[in-house]
Amino acid sequence: MPAKLEKPLQRIVKIYGVEGPVVLTVHPDGSLGFKAKGTKVGLLIGGVQVVQACPVPNNLPAKFGGRPYEFLQYQAQEQQKRNTKKLQGKIAKEIEEENR
To answer: Which residues of 65-92 are buried (b: 16+ CB within 10 A; e: fewer)?
Structure first.
């Protein structure tokens, strides 16, 4: 299971067309920072902009065509519904066992 990101995480990556290593910083809010290794100044892009820049796969429902942020929101909401239903089932099972 993926761990929740509590503090910025840095990794050195190679980006096509950039000479030398680049430090990628993933922030807990989903934003990404890029800077050349050994420098102080870099680029920062917000998490929403990262998602909006993603191409939407062709196999998504038409209502999400060209709207990756809405797709991600929908997926998160659906997962929350599944988790709630699963939890309700567990609670119902525990109540049933207690009543026996």
So the answer is: eeebbebeeeeeeeeeeeeeeeeeeeee
Domain boundaries, position 69: 54-100
- Check whether residue 15 and residue 38 sit in a common domain: yes
Torsion angles phi and psi, residue 26, rounded to 5: -100, 120
Q: Coil, strand, or helix at residue 63?
A: helix
The confidence score (pLDDT) of residue 25 equals: 96
Question: What's the domain count of the chain?
Answer: 2
Q: H helices within the chain, ranges in order?
A: 47-53, 68-98
* Domain match, 6 and 41 both: yes
In this predicted model, what pLDDT tens digit does every residue of 8-63 receive, in sequence order? 999 999 999 988 999 999 999 999 999 999 999 999 999 989 888 888 778 888 88
Beta-bridged to residue 36, according to DSSP, are: 22
